[in-house]
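REVIEWER CHECKLIST
Item 1: Sequence provided? yes
Item 2: Single chain? yes
Item 3: Sequence as submitted:
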Amino acid sequence: MLGAAGALVCLSAGTALGIYFRDKRQARLRLLQAMGDVLSGMRLLLTQERLGMSQLLQECAVYVPSHWGAAKLEQRLLLAAELLTSQPLLGVQGAYQKASEQLPIAWEQAEEREALHALFMQLGSGNAAMKEQAVATCLRRLKPITERAQEKAQTGGKLCMQLGLLLGLMIGIALW
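Item 4: Structure as written out by the authors:
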């Protein structure tokens, strides 16, 4: 019916669909990598500078990479800093919890959510060394989660690409 040009268009559309789903599968991996970047920056800032918690959160938001998988993490950190400044009685844990309720991240799972909530609970008290140790512990908790997500993203990404290509090929052949 459509001929070779139509089949090629169907093949291209199927491939584009596969790329879209591959990128969606990689969103969690990008979020976890962004969390690792932010926590590494936070650890560095805790050891080298004396900042208040709201300033620390604002500075850490700079470490969030600029890709769509992690954009909400930056917004969440900035909102937590703003809440901490405007409502200091909330505390660090309360401000982060309120910010995470207001700005949910669709691909954030319970494992990383629990690790970050435990971190922000510990950041509310103690000296800089204790806070730095809490960040290091959180980084250690997130490392195996990130490795598993990377493995899933690689295998699932290839599968999505192949299925998209196959779908486009089948539709193109059917409409030829």
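Item 5: Key structural point noted by reviewer: The radius of gyration is 21 Å.
Item 6: Recommendation: ____
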